[in-house]
User: Fold these one by one.
Assistant:
Number 1:
Amino acid sequence: MDVKLVKGSDPKFAELITKTNMASYYDTRGIVWGHDQFLRSWDELDNYEVYVDDIRIGVVRFSYTSETTFLRDLQILTEHQGRGFGSRCLDLVIEHANSQASDQLVLRVFSENPAIKLYQSKGFKKISEVKGLVEMELQLANL
């Protein structure tokens, strides 16, 4: 199956998948979802939709500095999780960061999120943890 990133065009889809996938983490921490904040972030971030063949299965969102690509979101619809799409999508995220001439790719993930194992399998290293939020980094210069 062909996994690809396509420039994002549907903030409602992105918000729904993100809100749904993050609900348990937010509930645990007493975080209230902010619809207006999400819409502002849609305008500020570089948004992509994840497709497998012609089926939209997820969303990926980035921000950048001169040296760093920040992965702000990588969300896969629940019914498509556990099938290798997240791993392939992460390969595309790394390719994208390299295309930005970034030195590193940085992300944050809640400490109990099982995706940490996926990130580690791709070479990400934990650089900090504050209040259950783990920051991870992949150095791109050696890739």
Number 2:
Amino acid sequence: MKPVVLIGFCLFVLFGFQRKSARMSWRDGHTLSWSDFQGLPSKGSAFSASSNTGISHRFTIKSTGIIDKSKSIIKANFYPKLSWYKPELIDEFTLKHEQTHFDISEVHARMFRKAVAEFHFTRNSKAEIQRIYKKIESSRRKMQSQFDAETEHSVNREAEKLWEVKVQALLHKYQPWAG
């Protein structure tokens, strides 16, 4: 059947919305560099850097009212204009920490792709996709916060290494749902 309506929207962007051209999608083998951080540091922030990441989803609803899974596009994104660093406070560990934040968003994008692939949608697809998203987004936020707490925002190098291994293992686990 022909698609009736194409709905494209960004499900989550931490701290604001950006134009499509102002985001960078996660790509296997590509790592962030400091030149990707184009925002201005938050005044009064004690942090040395901040990466703004999120998940976007574009989908099509068929004339039956059911989502067309084959046209579902889910991406983990980095938002350069909302990401920043303080040159005098950063080092190689800081950049790895920020990369891990981006990787955590990619893990959750893969989890979202898996959930969409396995879900049996009905004519209530819009509400169903929102419920799936909310669950994934809640998990993503929780993991991001836990990562910062346990690593003390990249100060605890031992914890940082453990998290890097954990996130890489999750990327591997969800490899079948890579974008």
Number 3:
Amino acid sequence: DLGGIPFVALYCSPILRAAQTAQIVGQRLGLTPQVVAELREVDCGILEGTPIDPSSPNAGWRVVVQWMVHDNHDLRFEAADTQWDSTAGHPGESYNDIAARFRPFIGRLEEIYRDTEANVLLISHGTTLATMLPGLLSNVDWAFSSTHTFDGSFYVIAERRGSEWVCLRWGEETL
């Protein structure tokens, strides 16, 4: 429950389920969602639509493990048409591709809200957040992120402390 937190801005992924959630949340908070491509879910190429889930490891999960455990950040999902890029043979994203869109977006938010106490709400997707947050939050690593997975109503509360981001809550768990 995020009740009581005074948010000043709401950013969301353009993917329908995130945009719909942002509309509902925005109405409750009195905020208009700002749709940004940087928060979209990972483009999984041929595996698009396949859950990436550690409880039932599949090809998608194996790619994520290569990124996060073996630092194989250039590895991409198999080639296929996807909803993000209809060009035949599109191989899906690599970790580096996701980071190249996500990290600069976070940097822009840091610039916008640098000298404020503003709370900003982001609505994104599980794999994007599970892979990007360990590189952003000083007290969350991949081992933690991979064993504390996201569901449709999962949330993370983080704050900037000096030069680093610190996770305060990961779902129902206080860190």
